[in-house]
Amino acid sequence: MMHDENKFLLVRRQLLDQVTTEEHRQAARIAQMFDYDNFPPTIDPLVKSKLLKRQQRANAIFLYYTYEKRFPHYGRTIHRIWNDTFQNTPIEMTRLIAGSRNSPNLTNELVRRNPFIKNRNLDNKKSIMN
Known about the structure:
This protein has 2 domains: 1-58, no CATH class; 59-130, no CATH class. Helix content is 58%, strand content 11%. The protein contains 6 helices and 2 strands, in the order H-H-H-E-H-E-H-H. It has helices spanning 5-17, 21-33, 45-58, 74-85, 104-112, 115-129, and strands at 60-66, 95-101. It has a two-stranded parallel ribbon with strand order 1-2.
């Protein structure tokens, strides 16, 4: 709780200066219209950040694999193989982005490991016994 009005006004100003979700969406739409290699220097900083992100991902390869519990280290292994295979070649400058897709195994594992469900079940058993 704030008791000082000046501190409140300072925090309020900081929160109002933050970019909203709608402004991010608008900047992304505007950034799609520009060529990320040749954009004007007087462009909005938010749009510029979106263009720079597109520029970084232009030379990237996305690799998705299906998640399995027995392969928790799979992404790390893919990166290690990529680096060992393409070391000292022109493709080494290409960025590899490895990620896992959702699968029924992952969904079941995340639901099963949810601590809130365990607590809820314990609370239900306690209330039944009382």
